[in-house]
Amino acid sequence: MSATTVGGVDNGVGDADDSHPDAGDGAPGLLPRERLAAFRALLDRPLLSYYLVMGIAALLIALGLVMVLSTSSAIALVSGAPLYQEFQRQLLGVAIGLPVMWFTARSSPRLFRAAAYPLLVVSVIGLVLTLIPGIGVTSGGASRWIDLGPFQLQPSELAKFAFMLWGADLLARKEQLGQLNEWRHLLLPLLPGASVICMLVMLGDDLGTTFVLLTIFLALLWVVGTPGRLFVAVLALMGVALLMLIIVAPYRLERLTSFLSPQTNPVGSDMQNIQGKYAIGSGGWFGVGLGAGKEKWGWVPNATTDYIFAIIGEELGLVGTLCVSALYGGLAYAGIRIARRVDDTFMRLAAAGATTWIVIQAVVNIGAVIGVFPITGVPLPLVSYGVSSLITTMAAFGMLMAFAKREPGAREALAAQGDGGLRRVLSWLGLTPGRA
Question: Does this model's pTM top 0.85?
């Protein structure tokens, strides 16, 4: 008998005869080998990266809005602040970020390369302005923001995006000229540029962002093919520099020593570490319920920013935290896939840099909450409260989507799909009749 079809696509499953050796034994569906072949065929679809990036962005943005609402409203009730102030600002960030992401998703690599230098200049000027009294906003001893009325701008977030674009464009130009066979051309002026931006960020007392900038720098060097010895030497130099930055600041050294030593003060200096772990541990498998968490009521400091993952663990449980982690893992896969499949050096470098920035930042944030890394103060991308971080990260997601549309066969696949967004997705999955 003939095989059945789903949406006009042969799924290879016979009705009841011997089309498969194990069909008579009641084995459902395809053979393991055929299942593996079907899975590989799905991974080979040209628009897989595009839809992965778009879907992951949508899910993380939605989760972020829900968790910021849940967390910030409790904090506002405790402190007496306006109830929905932080949620409204986050919603404003999404309202601004969605057109930005749409625009970047439809932009060409040439536009990103042209914008690299202006964005770098703007971010450097912004970082300098944060250090000027009366212009920069200082909170907790750190000067990282510029007050713009409805929200505060954090230039260091723009610096991540700008440095990634500038570094990718610089190395792509040098490769085109055949200059990357000498260490001078690999490191100059990329290393001095990274040093200047990191210095300005550190003057604002932001070690976490400095670490993320350095990981972008390393990712660019790795993808462009830096020799192993030179890469290890640069890595060692960066490690020494970070260690010195930690030692010279007493509070950073205290964070490191408290991370390495047993934590015993749940309402004092170890409050954030211990209460964050309490929050995750109390969530169990499925959590206490969305909005029903207790630790956000003043027990976990910075619950809407640095430690929002702890509240996710409490309210959504282990399943929720694993789903969030899987989303960032999916982004890592999609970003690496884009970087490997595009045929342009700039796109390859920029995709790798953006993916490294977002995924490493997520790993550092989650690792700090669960206690495997020291606290660095970096937000969870697209989830933590912070308008500047939200908009800049959405722009990076849009850039990845733009590059994904330039993978081999992606343009043809987009052109071959029918009208309507839902029909496109269903057709891509092979669930509607006609063209796939």
Answer: yes
